[in-house]
Amino acid sequence: MELDQDQITIERGYDIKMTQVDYDSLIPNNVNLKEDRRLQRALESWQPKFIQWWKTLGPVAFQDNDVFLRTAVSVSQEGWANFDYVKMPDYRWGIFLSDPQPEKKITFGDHKGEDAWQEVPGEYRADLRRLIVVQGDTEPASVEQQRQLCQTAPSLYDMRNLFQVNVEEGRHLWAMVYLLHRYFGRDGRDEADELLERHSGAQDNPRILGAFNEPVTNWLSFYFFTYFTDRDGKFQLASLKESGFDPLARTCEFMLKEEAHHMFVGATGIGRVVQRSVELMKEHNTEDISEFGGINVSTIQRYLNLHFTLSLDLFGAETSTNVANYFAAGLKGRFHEDQRSDDHKLKDAARLVPSISNGEIEWREAPALTALNETLREDYVADCAKGVERWNRLLSETGLELKLPHVGFNRHVGIFAGQPVTPDGRLVSQEEYNDGIANEWLPSEADRKYVASLMNPVLEPGKMANWIAAPATGIHSKPLDFTYVRA
Ligand SMILES: [Fe+2]
Ligand SMILES: [Fe+2]
Predict the structure, then answer these.
(1) How many angstroms does the Cα of residue 161 sit away from the middle of ligand 2?
(2) Coil, strand or helix: which one is 364?
């Protein structure tokens, strides 16, 4: 598979100045933690709660195994991005912000042109805290959702990638907890504790966002989750990276570099499933490869439909005054704010948003400021489409293809919530819709059973489960049959 943007970001590496990283502390960091004893003590008292959480709600197995992870082990040439065997509970979760820019200015909203804030402005304190908590909540949530997957990994290579994603989501939690402890005093510390108290799928105290309360039970879903849902993370982080609150901007900028790896796991994971399906279709000269242990393209499409549409909901309603306020206040910008040629204030600007009237999907004009969720979702969809194109290149000789469904399909948030919109964007009768949902458009009971039946662990180095092709290369120039997780 050719390099995509996500992979290029990974290969370019991590450009924080390693001289500024303190590896000797319990919590490796480049924020001068040892100069601030109170903060250091507060974080050191949160740390055992985090480890406790990791051990009880992190991966259900392999906690005592050596895993070949990228972790901060020493001040080496590679800095914190050092690859070595580590047991997951010993992973060096740390606090890393990208380097400050001198004389940084706010680039959008009512405060455009003013100096970026190094402390939280009083009038935006509650909004900023909310943005950080909602982002922070998704990080441990995804670890909880994925905790069973290690028992059915299709290879040691994949198991290691799962664990790398998991420990990094743990680090993203650390990143948000640092902001809460450092900038929000007592209520920040309370929020940090609550991030470990809410649990994915818990009846009484669930995670904040719906899509983070469903367990990820099979690896096809895991790859789609990392492709689509981690990509929602990319877009949320990319708009928070624009924030006028500089510590948040710098935290998110660094998180984005780790996020790129998660989407790489998803993009290449689905690519390998597709590649294997193509091999089996050719070998047996049929599209139905289920009796040969492969996953049919129609099944892959249904899982794609499910995970894509769940992720679309994460962007919220088409119009939102909260989001308009966040932008005007300079708290949350747009994806690639600096590459846009408008006035970055959007006071008089308008854009089209979908609406439904008289049984038709129509587009109406709305103030651009209140429609920022729609703008971000649109950018996200365009980004998602790139991977689908690459998967389709693998499929080209079969005459089959994968497609992103219409944004109105299977939605539970916004104007399309509960509307009978087909994957190709037609508003149909409820009856026709229910029929399509039951039989064609989303994973059926039979799909789920079949995919579950394939989920058998493959623990021999270099071996792959039959339903997925081997990756093109190993990790950190190690061969494919390297023991990525040691028994
Ligand atoms: Fe994350
Ligand atoms: Fe992620």
Answers:
(1) 12
(2) strand
CB under 8 Å to 443, separation ≥6 — which residues? 299, 302, 303, 306, 451
The rounded Å distance from CA 342 to ligand 2 centre is 31
352 CA from centroid of ligand 1 (Å): 31
At 449-480, the pLDDT tens digits run: 999 999 999 999 999 999 999 999 999 999 99
Distances (CA, A) of 483 to 118, 147, 156, 459: 45, 21, 7, 9
Rounded distance, CA 201 to CA 186, Å?
A: 28
Q: Which amino acid is at 99?
A: D
**β-strand partners of 245:** 117
In three-state secondary structure terms, 367 is strand
What is the whole-number distance in angstroms between the Cα of residue 233 and the centre of ligand 1?
A: 6
Helix (H, G, I), strand (E, B) or coil at 362: strand
- The Cα 195–Cα 97 span in angstroms is 21
Residue matched to tokens 């909540």: 137
- From the CA of 264, the nearest ligand is 2
What contacts 260, CB < 8 A, 6 or more positions away?
5, 6, 7, 9, 10, 234
Contact 31, 100 (CB under 8 A): no
Closest CA to 247 of 152, 359, 138, 129: 129
Query: Could you tell me the distance, in angstroms and rounded to a whole number, from the CA of residue 278 to the centre of ligand 1?
Result: 32
Give the Cα separation of 343 and 208 in Å (integer): 34
For residue 210, give both structure tokens: 């719906």
- Please state whether the predicted TM-score (pTM) of the whole model is above 0.85: yes
Is the predicted pLDDT of residue 166 greater than 50, yes or no?
Answer: yes
Q: How many CA atoms lie within 13 A of 417 on its CB side?
A: 9
